[in-house]
Amino acid sequence: LSVIAEVEPRVADAIGAELADQRASLKLIASENYASPAVLLTMGTWLSDKYAEGTVGHRFYAGCQNVDTVEGLAAEHARELFGAPHAYVQPHSGIDANLVAFWAVLAQRIESPALERAGVRHVNDLTDEDWATLRHALGDQRMLGMSLDAGGHLTHGFRPNISGKMFAQSSYGTDPETGLLDYDAVRARAREFRPLILMAGYSAYPRRVDFAKMREIADEVGATLVVDMAHFAGLVAGKVFTGDFDPVPHAHVVTSTSHKSLRGPRGGFVLCQPEYADAVDRGCPMVLGGPLPHVMAAKAVAFAEARRPQFAGYAQTVVDNAVALAEGLSRRGARLVTGGTENHLVLLDVSTFGLTGRQAESALLDAGIVTNRNAIPADPNGAWYTSGVRLGTPALTTRGFGAAEFDRTAELVVDVLSHTSPTATRDGSPSKAKYAVDGGVADKTRAAAAEL
Ligand code: PLP
């Protein structure tokens, strides 16, 4: 830090403050974790300085032999770790990984046959007229994904994201009674909508997904099954999700982040069946800028860590801890979407405390508990204020928490929310953001959180 402080001390201070914050609070954000020192150190190296557009052994820049080594290792570890035929480790983030996958499906399913028909051998040979035809064809393509309030992600065809512009979108939700995915309803929607891409995967669904069933549905309607395992990649790597619950043998294409439950550097990657490999490898320059060699190297290190036997123990503990957290919350009267969890996250309906998600999130933060507000199915407060708070166990499990610590965490969460009330704005109108938390309880909880 002293080296950084010599140049810009305010950055060094912010880095130090972040470490202090992360140590003093309870990090329950389901998409966050603590990467190992080996992963962090790998990112802070001179590999960062190298340009390496292209793929291993086929670069548009000279002198890429060391980048070839780290990219090759990251891809090899990813293939071995997940049992995938092909891995592409260049995406800079989860959103980028999805974009690579979507273009690859369009290229493999639409572009290639269209080019063949037109007698064009390479995409670079397309005339303006060909492109116009292609754009028209792309405009008619459809994506079916999980709705946002059921736990889906913005990149699964929703309007604020480019996927919602590239595809006509429709979504499937969860059963209003149980909160669980209803595969018959997904099948019925798919038969009606005939998507090119059936998207599976989630950001806030607290249960496992049967990917064998999703593949059956995709096959029935001629769709490509793309699974976004960003959230639960660590549980797949750690062999907690196996058989029908492992997306890799069932999906045509799997996308992921490397930084959530997988505990690697911030980034993305794509796994796919061989027929999609060429199109996936065109990610850069099709939709990605030059790869980040230092991050690909850190992915190689993280995947190597995840191949160690200890990682399977970690992944199982993440789920056991989520169950302990869910039970601790339920036992104290909290309502959970779906009634519990089978993965690394719990979705808490805070309306029973008389709060919006926004109020609950802020009150918990005041008390040293870091969460994020999240919509629940059919949320009356919409995606901004919400009625839920999402809690995840990957980060605190890395810190060594077990069931007892998570039960205590549940106690602290319920205590804070029970001592928080909504307040009105200055002119007396009701507010979905303003709240008052009992100062004594917040102080006591902050101290308890720092000690845990
Ligand atoms: N996919 C899913 C399911 C996610 O939950 C997220 C992020 O939260 C992403 C993709 C996007 O990842 P990134 O922030 O790395 O672009």
Please provide a written account of the structure.
With 452 residues, the chain is of the alpha/beta class. The chain has 19 helices and 17 strands. A 7-stranded mixed β-sheet has the order 4-10-9-8-7-5-6, sandwiched between helices. A 4-stranded antiparallel β-sheet has the order 11-12-15-14. It has a two-stranded parallel ribbon with strand order 1-13. Helix 3 packs antiparallel against helix 13, helix 4 packs parallel to helix 13 and helix 5 (94-117) crosses helix 6 (128-139). The longest helix is centred in the first third of the chain and has 24 residues, at 94-117. It is globular and about 75 Å long. The model has no long low-confidence stretch (mean pLDDT 94). Bound molecules: pyridoxal-5'-phosphate (PLP). Pyridoxal-5'-phosphate (PLP) is lined by residues 31, 93-95, 153, 155, 201, 203, 228, 230-231, 257, 268. This is Serine hydroxymethyltransferase. The record marks 259 as: Plays an important role in substrate specificity. Residues 5-108, 141-412 form the Serine hydroxymethyltransferase-like domain. Its EC number is 2.1.2.1. One of its GO terms (molecular function) is methyltransferase activity.
